[in-house]
Specification:
Oligomer: single chain
Helix content: 10-25%
Distance between the termini: 49 Å
Strand content: under 5%
Radius of gyration: 19 Å
Order of helices and strands: HH
Low-confidence stretches: none
Structural class: mainly alpha
Shape: elongated
């Protein structure tokens, strides 16, 4: 599931948390229409669902929006390096 979570995070551009409690390796086959593949791209296939519809239809999983702690990097100060 770790690979699927990383993949979904990269596709959605949001943090995704695994709450399935599933362990082990799985072979998954998922077909969806990428949001950036608009009709002008020539890759658009209206027969394919969005990733949000494909997950429950094809894998029985769903993405839910929620609030929770996430890891972030905060830079509160920066300086130019000095010459030696």
């Amino acid at each position: 599931m770790e690979s699927l979570i990383r993949f979904l995070s990269s596709i959605t551009h949001m943090p995704v948390v695994d709450k399935t409690r599933l362990k082990g390796a799985y072979n998954l086959h998922l077909q969806w229409q990428r949001e950036e593949d608009g009709q002008s791209s020539g890759l658009h296939d209206q027969a394919l669902p969005t990733i949000y519809a494909a997950l429950p239809e094809q894998l029985g999983l769903k993405l839910e929006s929620g609030k929770g702690p996430v890891k972030v990097l905060v830079v509160d100060h920066i300086e130019q390096p000095i010459e030696n």
